[in-house]
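Researcher: Next sequence.
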Amino acid sequence: MVMTPTTPGQALPNNQSLSPYGPARATITGNPLTPEEVKLMDAYWRACCYLIVGMIYLKDNPLLREPLHIDQIKKRLLGHWGSSPGQSFIWTHLNRVIKKYDLDMIYLSGPGHGAPGVIAPVYLDGSYSEVYPEKSEDARGLKAFFKQFSFPGGIGSHCTPETPGSIHEGGELGYSVSHAYGTVFDNPNLISVVVVGDGESETGPLATSWHSNKFLNPITDGAVLPILHLNGYKINNPTILSRISHADLAALFQGYGYEPLFVEGSDPETMHQALAATLDYAIEKIKTYQAEARSTGVAKLYRYPMIIFRTPKGWTGPAEIDGKKFEGFWRSHQVPMADVVKNPAHLQLLEDWMKSYKPEELFDENGTLIPELKALAPKGEKRMGSNPHTNGGRICKDLRMPDFREYGIPVEKPGTFEAPNTQPLGVFLRDVMARNMTNFRVFGPDENTSNKLNDIYAVSKKTWLAEYLPEDADGGELATNGRVMEMLSEHTLEGWLEAYLLTGRHGFFATYESFVHVIDSMFNQHAKWIQKAAELPWRAPVPSLNLLITSTVWRQDHNGFTHQDPGFLDIVTNKDPEVVRIYMPPDVNSLLSCADHCLQSKNYVNVIVCDKQMHLQYMDMDAAIVHCTKGIGIWDWASNDQGYEPDVVLVGCGDIPTQEALAANVMLREAFPDLKIRFLNVVDLLKLQPDTEHPHGLSDRDFDSLFTLDKPIIFNFHGYPWLIHKLAYRRHNHVNLHVRGYKEKGNINTPLELAIENEVDRFSIAIDVINRVPKLTVAGAHAKEKFRNQQIAAANYAFEHGIDPPEIVNWRWPL
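Model: Next structure:
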């Protein structure tokens, strides 16, 4: 064979053609395979390609043992051919190195709709049939296997949770590399191979995730082998990285800190040798680095190998269809010929194409892969389709938890002193980490100190494998063996955490409320994954995704309007109620209770909203536990309707909204001693939904008992007010539910001024009660006038002095 010899880690010559065709051109040269091995591996790959085409087209005649007929073709042809043959080629070679080096290895498929290239080898190694016995390894099972793909009642064209061996669905807007690194943290023997689609490589999240290598400890962590699969095109456009020079491409990944290894071409024989030589080199490099670090005890940043694998898009498909270029062009992205039922010429072309893989040489009379090819795959849990890390709940160890009660603060009288809500949580997380130093990490985008969680650094520093400067010692928070993961990319952090959880470990993510929107789509995809995985009996539950949303909207007086957005909650409530939970603890003890519950839960996305600043404290630990257990309840100490029907129901949900509602409560009771007020606090937001809609929802009887059937309800809410109406629209007293929340009004405001702008302040609430309680409509005029004057005075004070009036800042519950 002909290869261009080059120095490992360097680009091929800059004048090298960018064409994916021809004999293999590779950075690493050599012929590690015997002719017989090449023959067998090529046959295995042909079997994969045959299955890939069959999945897209066939519902019958799976082995083409009779002429192909239109009745055997699916009526709706769905799926993607383009990247699939290249992915199955890689998988075939990974099987070899797993056996040769006795590796613990998993595979993450980044290209969108790349499932056929993964599902085919998973079926061939037997993993698929073990999970789905009806998809047996014979002609009958193969027929069912083909029919289910992109078919009603079957499976989709991504590597969904239904796919054994998958923890990454593919096409998820650039998260494959961050997911891959998340799998190997604290998994020292695992190698995760991540195939990056060249369309995917253009995304922002993917670009930042290449820096994950700076956070990989070669002593305690495994390794990631990224393979950039350049097949040249997206849906119908070239991809950027496929059209830049070899020198620029090599320089890009050298700049990221990798050793780029090129493997390019289309000739199967030489490509088998080239990829085999390259993988041997890469695995041996990884093992050498790990052995050095583990023998010396010195962790440092190594230049790990990565592979740039350039092949034609739609490799081995028809070169042309109807005189138009197909293989190696964007037309091969999806279904090559979508009209085979109506076009006899295309039906014949499909049959010829499938027969070109020579299925009669690959499968025996029963339709089972022949023994010589079956032997190429690893056995048992060494198979990538059966690796236990891809079903992390099977190997998950529960957290060893300290008693959260010991981290609370004493509260003798509600609302009479302030404390920083999140600081005790940092102490609690410190000790959770101390007890779980191999399966728990804290994630945050350079904000853990800002979020008052910095006590965790007493147990573990921030992971850092890049360069150190002398002054770094002064901060004292960086370490090669750190377990606090900080990077100013919410995308990358979320990707690390998701994969860390899916492989059976535990984590906690804290971020500013205004920036959590960065991971909207990632949250969506993870919630969907958990939902589907929970429907599969063979998928074991995994630890929940726990998000602390802090530095919240009502205390963004310094960052201003751009940092005022509580809308992540609206997105969360769109997901399946079996998966999502939202908690709004108003004080330290309720936050600790919620956090303890969330850390021990599985198969949920838990969103906790709690600000980091000083806030009034309301409940001692026992009261907080009871209140959080109920999720919603009457605060008797803030109510005066005992034994009566209330005139009005005041509700606080969130720290500042609760404080302002309590202050309004006092103002009203001082002005109208006979006014009966019931005060509710909501911790579990989804309690507002009916129990028929959410597992935590209140029954109509319980909701009516708390909120009454006909009295006005003034609901002071942390987020956008319409979310509460969305959750409670079916309730009997919804017509009297009046929600106050953030309404996109704000700037560089003091806390009270921002509340006034959005009408969640004590004055607006008190005035609203006067307007809605019939007996106060006239009698309350003087009080309403007084409250308006006080509101104006407070706003004027803020404009003059830059702070809120002392009576506001120092307000305490007086009753």
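Model: Confidence is low (pLDDT under 50) at residues 1-6. Residues 411 and 620 are 5 Å apart (CA to CA).
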